[in-house]
Specification:
10 helices, binds zinc ion
Length: 185
């Protein structure tokens, strides 16, 4: 085989490898990619969850990190809906939490209204299809923040990225926020 053939073969191999990693079908190629959010992390989903737990621990133990805690949880949930948005209630809570944080001024008041509303067990129709691609940034981006300010800023950046990946459900999110605030006084 000539050298040029070899590099063509390598290039082809890389294309295939990339395809495998994107579909998460094969064993070893997808081992270091989280199939839910696309994070490049050792042990894929398991490693991704470990980083999330580390970040939660940091947010719980240091109020400077904790200020943005709710948004961290909502963004992570929107990237891992099979685990965190299984019920209609959890779906609505995380979707509206993200919407309230990024699109409204009175976020804590809205979150409280939604929480109250959800405790009345309203009927929530979860859409049949959720986005396959859920953003370009992942929890790994938050993990490497140098201090609390950078942490906060990166969580916001990550959340905006995830939120735009969910654009087909923005209207649904707004209508759930509206329902909660009109039904809960
Ligand atoms: Zn993940």
């Amino acid at each position: 085989m000539m050298l040029t053939d070899l590099s063509a073969a390598t290039a082809q191999h890389l294309v295939e490898l990339k395809a495998v990693m994107n579909t998460s079908g094969s064993q070893h190629a997808s081992d270091n990619i989280c199939a839910d959010c696309g994070a490049e992390v050792a042990q894929g989903k398991v490693g991704c969850l470990q980083i999330f737990e580390e970040i939660l621990a940091r947010e719980f133990s240091d109020y400077r990190y904790g200020k943005i805690h709710r948004l961290t949880v909502d963004a992570y949930s929107l990237q891992h809906p099979e685990r965190y948005m299984r019920s209609g209630k959890s779906f609505a809570a995380h979707l509206t939490g993200m919407c309230a944080a990024l699109e409204y001024e009175d976020t804590p008041a809205l979150n409280r209204a939604v929480q109250k509303w959800l405790s009345t067990n309203p009927k929530i129709d979860k859409p049949a299809r959720l986005p396959d691609k859920r953003g370009n940034l992942a929890i790994t981006y938050i993990h490497s923040a140098a201090d609390a300010d950078e942490h906060t800023q990166r969580v916001r950046e990550w959340a905006r990225d995830v939120w735009s990946a969910w654009s087909e459900h923005h209207d649904l999110a707004r209508s759930l926020v509206r329902k909660a605030t009109t039904e809960i006084k």
